[in-house]
Amino acid sequence: MNAKSKIIVIGAGLAGLVLAYRLKQQGKNVTVYEARPRVGGRVQTVLVQNRQGGFSHAELGAQNIMDGGVATNILSLIKELNLELNEDAIPFEGVYYDGEILHQRNALISQILTKHDKPHLTIPQIAANCQNMQEVLTRLQLTPAQEGFLSFLLNGYEGIDPSLLSTNPHNLNTLIHMLSGGLSQVHQVAKSKAVIHRVSLKEGNAKLPQCLADRMGQSIHLNKALSDVQYTHDKKIVLTFKDGSNTQCDSLVLAIPCTVYRDIAFAPEIIASDRLNRIRGMHYGTTTKVLMPIQYPPGTGHWAASPKMGAFFNDDQKLLNLYFTHDDGKILFSERTFQQTHQLLRKAFPSASFNELPFIEVNDLHYVQYSEPAAKSWKKDPYAQGSYSGFDITLENEIDKRVDYNGTIFKPLFAPIEDKIYFIGEHATILDEIGTMEAAVESAERLAKMLSDY
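Given the sequence above, the corresponding structure tokens read:
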């Protein structure tokens, strides 16, 4: 690969943009094609009118930069681009509503620890004979409220239903920290109290992909959904888009969710059928997010949850983020969902005033203003078809393996093919915390370094 080699990146999410930006810095000939009318992928910032009359920045997708742990890669990039951060530490305190009774989170954890006082020993022993994380929860013999609470937390944080989560060390550690009173390994109990370290961009997380896109100039093409990938006789890669146009390149970088591979035809010489089927088979979260304007006295609890929905405050405490974890694409039109949501909000925030439902489905654009509760179904989104990936049972232990490819570490499933086809994205990270903004950036920075060494 040299300065004359034409490189095409498919996908202008964080991973695709970071890689393209680094390659351009190296003087390489790189072009980005994006199916959406905007950059950012599963980062989407909008403005929602709060009950004080102003507009609050809000995230319909990736929200907390620190869900990626120390987030070295993305924080370094943000500093490099001179972007400003919002940062706070929020007590991990809230309530769980089982449909009849409102349970304090601290009480539920104390009850569980009475029975399982050494989760770091108990969980690995139980998991040794389990096929998935739901089986682990069941064998803990918890009450329905305790199991429902942990099931929601696992689903919400790891991205997919516990029945689809593998019993790999990462998922077990997440459950252990939940049983210890925290949320995960990167959001642990500190000084006898669990705290969520929350960091986002002051002007919304979409500021990062937009800033990267600005530096790419005319090298980004929007509204270009890929449909077909083939080789020519002289090993050029031919890309055909859904609008009928096509182009060629020497190297191809796929910076798209695994779910989207189902909509693209790949010649077997590009990606072998077995490998392609395993990529397409990865599970992604089925999440809908709703931004609900609310007026509520601060300091009386950070979040509330039910078996399939959680509610937590926005950065400025003027919006609730309603997080539905089992969305089949129909939640936005379900009267039952409206009723259950209002029931939880009235129970958990009794003195609050909030906007009435139903929700408004957002446009696929950044910084649009909405005067009503704004909603985004990532399951219905044609260019995501889910929220984010987790360590799921489909690939069993394969997702935990690593290989050395020309001195750079990759997951075997996402290792380069013939120095021509490359894979990046939050699913392709070699970090423990997949499904995060840090994971997406890490995968891109790692590949960019490898290509620069060439």
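Residues 6-40+206-283+387-453 form a domain with the FAD/NAD(P)-binding domain fold (CATH 3.50.50.60). Try to locate this feature in the token string yourself.
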